[in-house]
């Protein structure tokens, strides 16, 4: 593995798992803007793809590998001796995770591998992409990272919950520092087309029907990718939320029907909204973060839904998906 390592001595060596995916590719790109950082993206290209990778350079490199495979991830972590790990690789998507529950459970191996090898290679802090799904059908509003009881029921949510428990346990027993990000719905140009905003936007840009499960009164909050990435990077650089958990999301609730109407308005589309029966499970009626801690970190207003959708169109979302 000698060829993978660098002759440069970088101030920080950072592993980003899942970096050929939507959120982690943007994160990796931004972290690598600092030439003192060496960023290694590890991804098995299962749902991500090479087209989403940021432009590679001497301080931003890609290794194809599976974080759930101990030997593969060990080899990479051993050769680079990372200072920080952003563990974002996971199987995602409501339908995909419900149709492949056994594959979802395999991601437990990935988090265990990251914890174990971080302990053995001197990683200073592990940043973990958890999810608002750990709140399940929430028992209070808004969801507070410290006081709202978790209500994880589906395999994806249980794996995220267990991932959080791994980090807490490795910290308690071996002193490894961690930060847990509980991401609420995030959207942006590189999001895959099976998520609600990209699905609706793609349909609208093609003047196709927009399909809504149920009456569309279920609300969601939508956090633009730049807000997510800026907050997480600030948290890392300023040493915030060490051995703690923080909600990362936007707190403005939008009914799904209104989202479809907004997208039709912005795009000037001729799409027609079609309602189909509600999903049997996993489609929460409402979820909303208490994001007050995130707002203190980011110190600027979050990007509005309309601004974010316009940015997606301007940043070539449609061209990107059309190439696929
Ligand atoms: N997008 C959201 O709204 C959202 C909300 C909550 C939590 N999250 C979490 O944020 C993280 C990133 O999500 P995303 O939306 O960018 O998803 P994504 O599917 O675009 O990215 C995930 C990436 O991980 C890779 N991957 C999956 N399993 C892997 C493995 N075993 N080894 C190596 N690479 C693997 C995939 O190929 C993909 O590139 C995930 O952990 C997800 O659970 C996302």
Secondary structure: elements and pairs:
Elements (H helix, E strand, L loop, with lengths): L11 E6 L4 H10 L5 E7 L16 E5 L5 H11 L3 E4 L6 H6 L1 H21 L3 E7 L23 H20 L2 E7 L2 E2 L8 H10 L4 E4 L5 E3 L1 E2 H13 L6 E5 L4 E3 H12 L5 E4 L15 H7 L6 H10 L2 H6 L2
Parallel strand pairs: 1-2, 1-4, 2-3, 4-5, 5-6, 6-11, 7-10, 8-13
Antiparallel strand pairs: 9-12
Nicotinamide-adenine-dinucleotide binds next to helix 1, strand 2 and strand 5.
Task: Characterize the quaternary organization of these chains.
Answer: single chain
Secondary-structure element pattern, one letter each: EHEEHEHHEHEEHEEEHEEHEHHH
In the residues, how many domains can be counted? 2
Provide the helix percentage: 25-40%
CATH topology of the largest domain: Rossmann fold
* Largest sheet geometry: 7 strands, parallel
Tally of contiguous helical segments: 11
